[in-house]
Amino acid sequence: MQTVQVQAPSHSYDIVIGKNILNDFNLFAPHIGKKAAIVTNTTVAQWYLQPLVKLLQNNGIDAFSIILPDGEQHKNHESLNHIYDSLLANHADRKTTLIALGGGVIGDTVGYAAATYQRGVPLIQIPTTLLSQVDSSVGGKTAINHPRGKNMIGAFYQPKLVLADLNTLATLPEREFSAGMAEVIKYALLGDVAFLAWLEQHIAAIMQKDHTLLAQMIAHCCQMKADIVAQDETEQGIRAHLNLGHTFGHAIEAQMGYGNWLHGEAVAAGMVMAAELSQQLGYIGSDEIERVKNIIRAAHLPDTPPKFSEEEWLAHMRHDKKVDEGKMRFITLKNLGAAQIETLPDVNVLKNVLSKFTA
Amino acid sequence: MQTVQVQAPSHSYDIVIGKNILNDFNLFAPHIGKKAAIVTNTTVAQWYLQPLVKLLQNNGIDAFSIILPDGEQHKNHESLNHIYDSLLANHADRKTTLIALGGGVIGDTVGYAAATYQRGVPLIQIPTTLLSQVDSSVGGKTAINHPRGKNMIGAFYQPKLVLADLNTLATLPEREFSAGMAEVIKYALLGDVAFLAWLEQHIAAIMQKDHTLLAQMIAHCCQMKADIVAQDETEQGIRAHLNLGHTFGHAIEAQMGYGNWLHGEAVAAGMVMAAELSQQLGYIGSDEIERVKNIIRAAHLPDTPPKFSEEEWLAHMRHDKKVDEGKMRFITLKNLGAAQIETLPDVNVLKNVLSKFTA
Ligand SMILES: NC(=O)c1ccc[n+]([C@@H]2O[C@H](COP(=O)([O-])OP(=O)(O)OC[C@H]3O[C@@H](n4cnc5c(N)ncnc54)[C@H](O)[C@@H]3O)[C@@H](O)[C@H]2O)c1
Ligand SMILES: NC(=O)c1ccc[n+]([C@@H]2O[C@H](COP(=O)([O-])OP(=O)(O)OC[C@H]3O[C@@H](n4cnc5c(N)ncnc54)[C@H](O)[C@@H]3O)[C@@H](O)[C@H]2O)c1
Ligand SMILES: [Zn+2]
Ligand SMILES: [Zn+2]
């Protein structure tokens, strides 16, 4: 079992990572009220809901469950209202604990419900995808989508506790596991070359879900994200490094139609493109590019994007939030393990990179 | 012009109180982005919207307006969505400033929209009722109603600036002005007997809307609320004093049908009842009761509740949030200017008080 302590502005809390921790009521006890609502989706419910309901009920908690449909398209206002209605029907008050049991979609939606129900109720996050364990459950961002845009409505809200149980990864589809690995690799590339070397050494065993290595890896990623977030609550500076590969990645997701490429897959190819851009700018060489591609391939992720026209690429990138007032800002790699925010001197540097990935 | 500085957990900000301050762009300048959405209602818009739009536009701000229907029944999810939709249609981003121009209904709704649009955008509060100037614009509570309960969905969110322009009170119906005075009297009774004496001395001129006295009075109330909130962010302790008269008041509002008695009117009668309860408990005498009734009458507020049956009274009070796990908690007056939280020893003390107001 590994524990990462996160220092949030309002309070500090633990991320506990390990095997069988969802059976251990002692972990819940200090953070749970007399009444608790477990919110999950139809997929995750199959394996993990009943054991958790029983654990809590056996320990005297008045636990009830709320089951949402599965999918990003349900990270919306209807699911939110469904949660509010169930909470009210079950007489949930300000001390009722909300438990988010699922991947990032559940985590974001339930986190937002917890932030806003009666101006905020206690929240426990139980991330069950690799992506949510290493990324979305850290940092306090919660949100739902609006028909006009992803994550448009949301709040910053910190949980009382995060429990990442490695057992849950056993049922996770391989493709989803790999998608989570893209964010893991991102942490290495943006800020920790020693961690990159560690990943390179252990990637085969990690892909086999070696529990000891997984626990170390997840804890390391949570620690890195927590440190970055703590340094930059307002999202003006270093937190932007977390977007490494994401400007290109978002273009891929949008052009392919959302859901066809998983977010992590698009980010993986996007990181290769960010590396190529860094090479264009003279920061890294082809050896470094190869290292980036190798670790991405070893995680069963795409090391190259689909081919689009230059127009298609640029159209999506102009819409990206990081393209600030006409100036194109990218996260580039000064070196492996050393990301920086960069405003491109002119669009030709970018076009040179895109030409390699143009139909 | 009076200024009260409020120390919120996230940042500190000013409440500026005075005449003609809505014409002074210098007050806005440090706190407003390039783009601003002014949200108001159809009533307030008549007098105060166009001048503000012009002021901002003349100073180079890309200002647009969002007009909601008037009334507590519109402090809901539909109004919220209307705001979100207009913000998105106008390409509002994270730097767009939301300006709440209106009473507490507008302040609460727009405050909540600002808290949640893109996880939070800058907010300026322009309270235009006395109640919102002395109460709802201080403390960072924002909320909308849910069909199952008032203020059920909300967030804590602090503005960058509050501008309370005394000129706006000229158009406020007398009944609404008096309702605001109930909260003013509440501050005096719960925590400041010198302020009570000052009110007694000046009440006639205040009811005539003497601007100098109003500015002093509003600043004093904002300062008192800000101090109480700062001492007790989690609402476990002294902040409960702000509920003086409210347990009885809520019962009156509910039994009369919401909207028939204004909140402030119900609180005024509720404070008389709280004073009677304090007398029953041996804290204050009939001279103090008379002082309470006199200041309430001088503010053109009811000093006695409608008559209900004991059953009706108790039914509403059992639903009150402050009736915690069967124990009835009330805010009582140890003395004028000295409120305390009290768990009633038994229900008979309460029934004795109710018997005076029973049909
Ligand atoms: N809040 C943040 O900081 C942040 C950061 C990154 C991503 N996100 C959000 O996270 C979401 C993506 O999260 P995700 O990748 O976890 O997607 P997801 O929640 O949709 O989960 C992916 C799929 O795996 C299923 N699943 C979850 N756990 C499982 C398990 N243990 N076994 C079998 N199946 C399981 C889910 O039901 C779903 O079908 C996006 O909405 C994104 O916006 C948020
Ligand atoms: N957030 C908090 O801490 C807090 C505290 C107390 C009350 N509240 C909330 O505040 C709301 C009540 O606020 P309110 O009493 O200001 O009610 P309100 O906003 O409904 O205003 C009362 C009436 O006066 C009109 N009005 C507003 N300004 C005017 C002006 N200058 N001239 C003429 N008419 C004007 C309004 O359109 C409305 O018809 C409730 O929803 C309550 O829950 C919130
Ligand atoms: Zn990502
Ligand atoms: Zn009140």
From TrEMBL, chains A, B:
<keyword id="KW-0479">Metal-binding</keyword>
<comment type="pathway">
    <text>Metabolic intermediate biosynthesis; chorismate biosynthesis; chorismate from D-erythrose 4-phosphate and phosphoenolpyruvate: step 2/7.</text>
</comment>
<comment type="similarity">
    <text>Belongs to the sugar phosphate cyclases superfamily. Dehydroquinate synthase family.</text>
</comment>
<feature type="binding site">
    <location>
        <begin position="128"/>
        <end position="129"/>
    </location>
    <ligand>
        <name>NAD(+)</name>
    </ligand>
</feature>
<dbReference type="InterPro" id="IPR016037">
    <property type="entry name" value="DHQ_synth_AroB"/>
</dbReference>
<dbReference type="GO" id="GO:0008652">
    <property type="term" value="P:amino acid biosynthetic process"/>
</dbReference>
<feature type="binding site">
    <location>
        <position position="141"/>
    </location>
    <ligand>
        <name>NAD(+)</name>
    </ligand>
</feature>
<feature type="binding site">
    <location>
        <position position="150"/>
    </location>
    <ligand>
        <name>NAD(+)</name>
    </ligand>
</feature>
<keyword id="KW-0456">Lyase</keyword>
<feature type="binding site">
    <location>
        <begin position="104"/>
        <end position="108"/>
    </location>
    <ligand>
        <name>NAD(+)</name>
    </ligand>
</feature>
<comment type="function">
    <text>Catalyzes the conversion of 3-deoxy-D-arabino-heptulosonate 7-phosphate (DAHP) to dehydroquinate (DHQ).</text>
</comment>
<dbReference type="GO" id="GO:0005737">
    <property type="term" value="C:cytoplasm"/>
</dbReference>
<feature type="binding site">
    <location>
        <position position="246"/>
    </location>
    <ligand>
        <name>Zn(2+)</name>
    </ligand>
</feature>
<keyword id="KW-0520">NAD</keyword>
<keyword id="KW-0862">Zinc</keyword>
<keyword id="KW-0028">Amino-acid biosynthesis</keyword>
<keyword id="KW-0963">Cytoplasm</keyword>
<dbReference type="GO" id="GO:0009423">
    <property type="term" value="P:chorismate biosynthetic process"/>
</dbReference>
<keyword id="KW-0547">Nucleotide-binding</keyword>
<dbReference type="GO" id="GO:0003856">
    <property type="term" value="F:3-dehydroquinate synthase activity"/>
</dbReference>
<feature type="binding site">
    <location>
        <position position="263"/>
    </location>
    <ligand>
        <name>Zn(2+)</name>
    </ligand>
</feature>
<dbReference type="GO" id="GO:0046872">
    <property type="term" value="F:metal ion binding"/>
</dbReference>
<dbReference type="Pfam" id="PF24621">
    <property type="entry name" value="DHQS_C"/>
</dbReference>
<dbReference type="Pfam" id="PF01761">
    <property type="entry name" value="DHQ_synthase"/>
</dbReference>
<dbReference type="InterPro" id="IPR056179">
    <property type="entry name" value="DHQS_C"/>
</dbReference>
<dbReference type="InterPro" id="IPR050071">
    <property type="entry name" value="Dehydroquinate_synthase"/>
</dbReference>
<dbReference type="InterPro" id="IPR030963">
    <property type="entry name" value="DHQ_synth_fam"/>
</dbReference>
<protein>
    <recommendedName>
        <fullName>3-dehydroquinate synthase</fullName>
        <ecNumber>4.2.3.4</ecNumber>
    </recommendedName>
</protein>
<dbReference type="GO" id="GO:0009073">
    <property type="term" value="P:aromatic amino acid family biosynthetic process"/>
</dbReference>
<keyword id="KW-0057">Aromatic amino acid biosynthesis</keyword>
<dbReference type="GO" id="GO:0000166">
    <property type="term" value="F:nucleotide binding"/>
</dbReference>
<feature type="binding site">
    <location>
        <begin position="70"/>
        <end position="75"/>
    </location>
    <ligand>
        <name>NAD(+)</name>
    </ligand>
</feature>
<dbReference type="InterPro" id="IPR030960">
    <property type="entry name" value="DHQS/DOIS_N"/>
</dbReference>
<feature type="domain" description="3-dehydroquinate synthase C-terminal">
    <location>
        <begin position="180"/>
        <end position="323"/>
    </location>
</feature>
<feature type="binding site">
    <location>
        <begin position="168"/>
        <end position="171"/>
    </location>
    <ligand>
        <name>NAD(+)</name>
    </ligand>
</feature>
<keyword id="KW-0170">Cobalt</keyword>
<feature type="binding site">
    <location>
        <position position="183"/>
    </location>
    <ligand>
        <name>Zn(2+)</name>
    </ligand>
</feature>
<feature type="domain" description="3-dehydroquinate synthase N-terminal">
    <location>
        <begin position="66"/>
        <end position="178"/>
    </location>
</feature>
